[in-house]
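Quick one, tokens below:
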């Protein structure tokens, strides 16, 4: 008799244990026991392995079917899924005010939150995201709904309650003490589930909306419970200029976060397009990772994040969709955008050179689909401190995997395969052209959580849920407009440096904390 929860697959498994190298484990037999990979061996040892594990059958993959590790999205704003694909017309600080805060605030309607979050988690699982690092929203309750939804559908996740206690709309702000209390409540609620797939995360939104007191208090909670931490760092000019005006005594966002105690080996900072080399080296020393969100950076950012350069300085780098700053929930899309982003850097360097010679220096930022897949799996696992648990197919790791079917031709699939194309070409087509239709089964901890249109732990199917959602969306409250004080900050920070400085001055008069330089010598803050 097979031990409980033991099963086996025979076929081809693709993964990227080494950056830039795609390894194909061809005709292997993978035994999964209690969610973990117990054995990887040659397919022709099937009979012996079957006897050893008491397996009544071994599932053989069909030609053109492959396993790939589940994707790890290191930066998702769960409530922003509601408006993903819309609202791409304004810069970051205005985008937060105009679209983001109202949308997030509307999750106080818990019925709506419950339904939207089920749709969100289903959408991400369907697209192959077996692990996600989620930001929730400000209010405590909807975040508990998010955690429940993840638990119910079987996804792996690191989840945080967003904290923000300054420069935010009146209806979407908390006072410092409440924020710290609710952050701790969220941590204990999530840990109390004792669900090994779900971990809580401390989530100061970003420096402009978090007082030093809040950030330091959150760092203490993270330390007390050994939590992950997530925030946004050096994302775009509007944000960076705003922080420089608010905290002139610090050399950079990284210096602020360092002083607050928020740079740890379990911290993931999103974007980082404007990090200096010194900042990157410092994050690397702390073991802090950056979530590279190429699609979002094209819309809300002003600069390119250079993956190869950051890795060469020792930084941990994962990949993120940044829904809704990024307009796609798909990590396949994120991988393609990472490749395009790298090629834009090359094109930019050539344009700056004014010449027609592509030098090796211009080439060194270019990444291929293989590096992108590494970022979406191994890089993400490293960023989330899960490199010994997921990211590749190795004995002892948990089986988070996607069964890819490249046999869907014509209108039933996103691409066609032609005679003479081998497995490697079919797999490359999947990474570059594939979509959720190719992901016929999704596994987390060895459990099939989605097969075809069915979410197996939920018992519902996609079509039915979509119909239900339309009713709930109709009944959701209309988001209120945020307060004028914040509007000014957003507008000015994005408009010009001069205006940003005027505004931050005004905000300080309005009761925001004065720059720290009054109490601390500036030289201290310039060092890490
Ligand atoms: N900075 C602060 N909040 C956000 C957010 O929700 N999305 C992005 N992209 N950047 C942010
Ligand atoms: Fe973000």
């Amino acid at each position: 008799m097979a031990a409980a929860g033991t099963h086996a697959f025979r076929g081809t498994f693709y993964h990227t244990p080494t950056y830039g190298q795609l390894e194909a484990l061809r005709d292997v037999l993978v035994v999964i026991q209690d969610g973990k990979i117990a054995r990887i061996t040659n397919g022709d040892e099937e009979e012996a392995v079957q006897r050893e594990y008491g397996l009544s059958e071994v599932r053989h993959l069909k030609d053109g079917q492959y396993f790939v590790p589940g994707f790890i999205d290191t930066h998702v704003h769960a409530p922003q899924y509601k408006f993903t694909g819309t609202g791409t017309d304004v810069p970051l600080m205005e985008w937060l005010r105009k679209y983001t805060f109202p949308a997030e605030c509307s999750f106080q309607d818990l019925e709506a939150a419950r339904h939207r979050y089920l749709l969100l988690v289903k959408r991400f699982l369907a697209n192959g995201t077996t692990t996600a690092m989620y930001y929730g929203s400000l209010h405590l309750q909807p975040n508990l709904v998010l955690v429940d939804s993840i638990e119910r559908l079987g996804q792996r996740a690191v989840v945080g309650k967003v904290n923000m206690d300054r420069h935010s709309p009146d209806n979407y702000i908390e006072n410092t003490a409440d924020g710290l209390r609710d952050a701790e409540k969220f941590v204990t609620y999530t840990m109390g589930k004792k669900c090994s797939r779900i971990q809580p995360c401390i989530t100061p939104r970003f420096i402009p909306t978090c007082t030093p007191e809040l950030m330091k208090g959150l760092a203490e909670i993270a330390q007390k419970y050994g939590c992950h931490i997530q925030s946004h760092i050096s994302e775009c000019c509007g944000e960076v200029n705003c922080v420089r005006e608010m905290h002139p005594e610090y050399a950079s966002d990284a210096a602020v976060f360092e002083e607050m105690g928020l740079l740890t080996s379990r911290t993931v900072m999103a974007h980082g397009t404007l990090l200096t080399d010194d900042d990157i080296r410092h994050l690397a020393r702390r073991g802090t990772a950056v979530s590279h969100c190429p699609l979002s950076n094209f819309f809300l950012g002003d600069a390119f994040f250079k993956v190869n350069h950051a890795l060469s300085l020792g930084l941990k780098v994962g990949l993120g969709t940044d829904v809704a700053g990024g307009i796609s929930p798909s990590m396949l899309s994120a991988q393609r955008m990472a490749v395009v982003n790298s090629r834009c850097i090359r094109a930019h360097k050539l344009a700056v050179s004014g010449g027609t010679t592509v030098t090796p220096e211009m080439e060194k930022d270019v990444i291929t689909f293989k590096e992108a897949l590494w970022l979406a799996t191994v890089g993400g696992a490293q960023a989330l401190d899960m490199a010994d648990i997921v990211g590749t197919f190795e004995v002892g790791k948990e089986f988070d995997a996607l069964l890819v079917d490249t046999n869907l031709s014509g209108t039933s699939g996103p691409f066609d395969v032609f005679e003479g194309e081998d497995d490697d070409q079919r797999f490359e087509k999947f990474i570059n052209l594939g979509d959720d239709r190719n992901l016929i089964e999704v596994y987390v901890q060895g459990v099939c959580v989605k097969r075809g249109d069915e979410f197996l732990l939920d018992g519902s199917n996609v079509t039915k849920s979509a119909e239900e959602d339309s009713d709930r969306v109709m009944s959701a409250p209309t988001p209120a407009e945020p307060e004028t004080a914040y509007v000014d900050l957003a507008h000015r920070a994005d408009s010009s440096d001069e205006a940003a400085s005027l505004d931050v001055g005004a905000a300080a008069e309005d009761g925001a904390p004065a720059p720290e330089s009054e109490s601390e010598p500036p030289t201290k803050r310039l060092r890490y």
